Structure formats: C-alpha cells, structure tokens
Amino acid sequence: MLLVAPAGAADLRIAMAADVGSMDPHFANISPNVVVSSHVFETLTTVDADARLMPALAESWAAVGPTTWEFRLREDVRFHDGSPFTAEDVLFSLQRPATIKNSPGGFTTFTKPIVRMEAVDRHTVRLHTAAPYAMVPYDLVSVFIVSKRAAEGARSRDFDDGTAMIGTGPYRFVRFARGEAIDLARNDDYWGKRPEWEHVSLRLIPSDPARIAALYAGDVDMIENVPPADAARLARDPRFRIERKISWRTIFLTLDQYRDDSPFIDAGGKPNPLRDARVRRALSKAIDREAICAKVMDGFATPTANIVAPTVFGHAHSLQAEAYDPAGAKALLAEAGYADGFELTLHGPNNRYINDELIVQAVAQMLARIGIRTRVETMPVNIYFPKARAESFSVALLGWGSFSGDLALRSLFMTENATQGTGAWNWGRYSNPEVDELVRRALGALEPAERERLTREATVRAMGETALIPLYHQIASWALRRDLRYIARTDEYSFAFDVHTETTP
Fold it and tell me: Model confidence over 350-385: pLDDT tens digits?
C-alpha cells in the first residue's frame, strides 16, 4: 500500500460556497456561519453525517421529569485559553442569543422553550420547560457553547477580531478576512480525536466558476456545492473525486399571505392575491419541478411536496410533488378572480444556493406562461437575508435544512411568536391554529411514533393550504483531491476535522 501525502503537508484549504457574515456563533443561524463556528466552538449534543443525535460536550442526558432535562457534562474539557469548561458556561451560552442586538435571529428558536435553567454542580445542568417537550436534546445541537469568561459583555465585533473567539473545539481561531477567508490552527489540547490538519483555511468563494478554477489550479484542496454543469467533467478527472448525498435542504418559495397590499405585487387595484389559497396553488401548479431538477440543476435535485427530505424524521410520504399543470393553474386563477393575472417581482439570492439565480429566472418564466407578469431581482445573500427577514418581499426563494420535520414546522409554519420562539423564519406569515396545535403536540410527544404521526399530519395540513411552495430537495456535493476522503453529510456542512488522507494501492 502506498500512502499518498497531501500536497500542503499539514495544511487544508476548503472553498466555501457562501459568504460568512459574522464570527459570533449566536448572531445568525445560517449554514456558512454554523460551519465556521463548528470548528472553534461545540454544542452539548451533535449529529453525525446521517443527522443522528450524538453526545458532544454533554456525555449523557435524560428526562428526569415531565418538564425537566438533565445533562451531564464532560469533565476533561478546557477552553482554548486554558480555562475549564463548566455548567456556568452552558447557562451563559443558552441565555446569550436573546441578548444580541440587530441579529437576524434563528438561535432563540432553540432556547425559548427553556423557561428555567440551573447548575446542579460544575458538570451537571438541569433545563426546565413550561410543558413536556421532547426536543431539548435536538435543539441543543444548534446552540454553541462559549466561554463566559471571554464572551461576557462581548459584542459581535469582538468575535470578528478574535478577542472573544475562545471555544472548546478542535481548531483555534487565527484570522477573519471578511469576504476572503477564515484561518484556523489545530487545538492540540482538544479533548476529542485530534484533527489531521495543523492549519485550515476556509476560503470564501461564492462564485461557481471561481471555485472550480481554484480547485483545478490547486489553490484549494476541496470545494463544496459542486456546480452541476461541471460535475461530469470533474468525475472524469483522475485528480479528483466527488462525494454526493441527498441533502436535508429543501428549496422553496415564501409567499406574503398576510398583507392586503404586498410591496411587490400589482393586481390592478385588487387585494393581495397571495392571500387566496387558490392563487398560491395556481403558482405551484405553474412550476415544472421535473424540468428544473433535470435542466437547471443537472440532476442535483429531486422534486418535492415536503419541507424535509425523505430520509428525515417526519417526512410525509403521502405527499407527492405538484404536477406541472399550467391549464389547471389558469383555471384556479380565474376561479379566484384573477383571470387576467397580475404583476409580481420574484426575489432571490444570487450566491447562496446551487444555481439560485437560475432557479429564480426559470420560475419567473413558468409563471409568465399562466399570465403572471413576473420580474426578477436577485442580490448577494448578505443583503438578501436581512431584507427577507424584514418581510420586504412578496415572493422569495429560500432554503431550509432540518434533521426533523417538527423542528422545520416550528420555524417555517407555526404562527410567529417571539416570546415562544415559533415562526422565526415564517416570513410569509402563514397561520393556522390547528397546525400550531399539531406541531406543539408533536414537539411534546416523548413517543417517537406519535411524534412522527403528528408531524406528518401538520405537514399535510399546511401543504394542503400551500403555506409555501416547495420546489426540490438539493443534493449536497463536494469535490476534493483524489488522495482525500470526506464522508458526505446530510446537513451539507464542510468540516475540516472530518477530512482525511486515504491509503490507495
């Protein structure tokens, strides 16, 4: 057997497909930020490549009462500055997301169900909920633990310059060059398995051609989000390998269904047509998902009527992707009183999801065929997300990934309630009390079969009203040097500590 040594010795360079806005691990719950945070910080629980729950900073947990969860913390963990990891750091970290000003949000969804928390001793915490709630261990997958000593009083800019970037993770923070790269150094005192790479550079290359060019030129060792049009050529090149896996990410359209006067719709004096479920269904019928997946995504997607992928807990198998039916769409528009159509602007990012700008353009062309006069506006994700969060659009492209259907429903379908932490990403403000109740019951069900039944029922109910328009499940992909191995992840994350050299004949 011949061991093929990596070209950069102990260095690894990964090209990320989307920009990173902040080093603060509690600022924005978006995938690029989460990937960076996962190298420096850790969570109490985590998931493996197949989205199965696993221990992390908590070595065990249990429900010790109907509304009480107890987590036993690892005792052999230290932060990068040498200070010990204790229960006080956990309590501080769970409270911190709610204190961050001007945050686009996302993390409080996971902390709001906790109404009281206590440190039993230095390595035991108890978390209390207002009602029985089965999802506490799953929620904590998403909340990074920071050092109270380093982060107390810190602002997001203190993480960007490295002052507060003190975690327990396998890598230490070195540098954040905004729009360019994040540089990391191995934490040789890490409590867990020692990473293979001494230095890691996470290069920010949202442009597909630039990312591919960097791989071919040897400027990076691995890229994420392989452009579908380049996949076949890369697969034939003996210098590289491609790893693929159906993703947990669903791409869909959010629909403004709460305002009488929506900002980017002109219906000739009539009220916002998207408030009518028949119009929402008409838009869904107008979209040829098979064509999008085959032609725009080059097979790197599969059509869906669900909000979570087939492999994810709570996927409603009874739902089938909406068939392309422009005649049926026109009939529904006429029935709703919009036989002559209307005008709308379709918004989307142009550097966040695979071929996102092309997807938006394709959907616009399909809507035009049923009389919806559609304009397209796309923009970089750092501009797009704040606008979408502020509900500045009428119809907008969004992607969502979750390792269980009830968690996705809580964020995307439940009525927005900041106090309860529901509907944080429900930007179209869909609201149905019956769906809310089903999701609440699912989240509190300790029996998995009952929890999944309720999740599926809520999904079917919401999709029956076209709460949003699901398009497809993305297929995650990575291209890397032939002598490297990476186990493709359902959550699409690119982790340097899971990249290894391979022994080849």
Answer: 988 989 999 999 999 999 999 999 999 999 988 999
Q: Is residue 122 part of a domain?
A: yes
Q: How far is CA 197 from CA 432, 453, 489, 496, in A?
A: 49, 44, 19, 8
Range of the domain at 101: 42-152
User: pLDDT, tens digit, for every residue of 244-253?
Assistant: 998 888 999 9
8-state DSSP, 283: H
**Residue 358 placed within a domain:** yes
Nearest to 171 by CA among 26, 12, 8, 9: 12
Give the number of residues written for the chain: 505
Residue 388 located in a structural domain: yes
393 lies in some domain: yes
Residue with the larger pLDDT of the pair 272 and 248: 272
How many domains, the chain? 2
Rg of the Cα atoms in the chain: 23
Q: Check: CB of residue 468 under 8 Å from CB of residue 255.
A: yes
- For residues 121 and 269, state if they share a domain: no
Between CA 413 and CA 423 the distance in angstroms is 6
**Is 264 in contact with 434 (CB distance < 8 Å)?**
no
pTM: 0.79
**CA dihedral sign, ordered 138, 143, 148, 153:** negative
Segment among 4-18, 130-144, 433-447 with least mean pLDDT: 4-18
Asked if 329 and 370 count as a contact pair (C-beta separation under 8 A), the reply is yes
Q: Do 64 and 126 meet the contact criterion of CB atoms below 8 Å apart?
A: yes
